[in-house]
Amino acid sequence: MKVYYSVLLTVLVASLTAWTNVAIAHNPEFSYIWLQVNEDGMKGRVEADTNHVNIATGLGISAEDGLTPEQEESLKQYFASHLSIGDIDGDYPLTFVDVDFMEEVQQYLVMHFVLDSPLPAPDELTITYSAIMHAIPEHRGGFHFEYNYRTGVEDNHTQLSSIHAPGRETAQLSTKNNNRMRQLANFISEGIEHIWIGIDHILFLVTLLLTSVLVRKGRDWQPTEGLKEAIWNVVAVVTVFTVAHSITLALAMKGWVTLPSRFVESVIALSILVVVIDNFYSLLGKYKWSAVFVFGLFHGLGFASVLEDMTVDFQARVLALIGFNIGVEIGQLVIVLAIFPVLYLLRRHSYLNVVLRPASAVIGIVACWWLVQRSFDLPSGWTSF
């Protein structure tokens, strides 16, 4: 019956938090760089969120007030210093010719540029983009070939060719093929990075791993007798979590499952708290893996919200889904390999009092705060992990 109480609690929290669709923790903003490779030269534009631009530049611009000549010039200089396009011989001279606000999305700036590039277009381009990331590390730059006469691309507003992030500001792209492997590599990198900076996902996994080196004897925990049993526990943790989040990640990317972000984030916090309680009181009993599977479905929706933002209605979503999921699993495997051996070696050395209970208690406090914060939409402040 305990599992039914935990599911009921999940539903109650979900109902309370489903009123507002507030995107938190899993919605990094993007700048978009569009390039047209024409027979007579190259030109393009950058579109960037006004709020993020203000954080990075301190210019205090707004669509309501418009741009002063000084603000426009400052924006041109700022983005020219954070965007370069060239080839193996160096960067091409790049000039921003005008700056305005998008008609369709007023909170976005649109800045057109021209390139003094060679003719015909080279086979390989080097693109570097680093705007805003110095102020907001979660910010990303999504590069598109909007038009490319060499590959027959026309009016492309969906397919990303590269994703630029801190530490990955530069990308080499071909102008004579569709860059599929580059796209796959981008999404693998984003999947790895997301699981590593997604502290809530990490804590859920770590909370489960804390008991992977133990077995239940009645209501008490006892160390596993050997490595084989502990490894099977880890395999069970990783398999159940992976299968669950892969299912909802795929369904969400197909558009078949859509839930409010605040709802999903609150349940993710609740999932950590429930597993913490189970570490102390055996709340879930024999239904533990069923509960982990259900909660893993919500973690998959959390991953999906990130991938939705990165794909920009990505037509080749299968490629994005495969790459991102591979990245998540690689990142998850690294975490397991780093933590499990330590836990296994410590399992017989006052493990319950030195490791399991203190670690679970700390994680539980964090999860409690996240649950309150996300359920009631409280400001994150210094507690935004």
**Domain module tally:** 2
Element-level helix/strand string: HEEHHEEEEEEEEHHEEHHHHH
Mean pLDDT: 83
Overall spatial form: elongated
Biggest sheet descriptor: 6 strands, mixed
**Count of DSSP-assigned helices:** 10
Unreliable segments of 5+ consecutive residues = 1-28, 381-385
Strand order of the largest sheet: 5-6-2-1-8-9
Secondary structure class reads: alpha+beta
Question: In percent, how helical is the residue content?
Answer: 40-55%
Radius of gyration: 24 Å
**C-alpha termini separation:** 34 Å
- Proportion of residues in β-strands: 15-25%
Number of E-type strands: 12
Short description:
With 385 residues, the chain is α+β, with helices and mostly antiparallel strands. It has helices at residues 2-17, 50-57, 69-80, 180-197, 199-209, 227-253, 261-281, 288-311, 317-346, 351-375; strands at 30-38, 41-49, 83-87, 90-91, 94-101, 108-115, 124-129, 140-148, 162-164, 170-174, 214-217, 220-223.
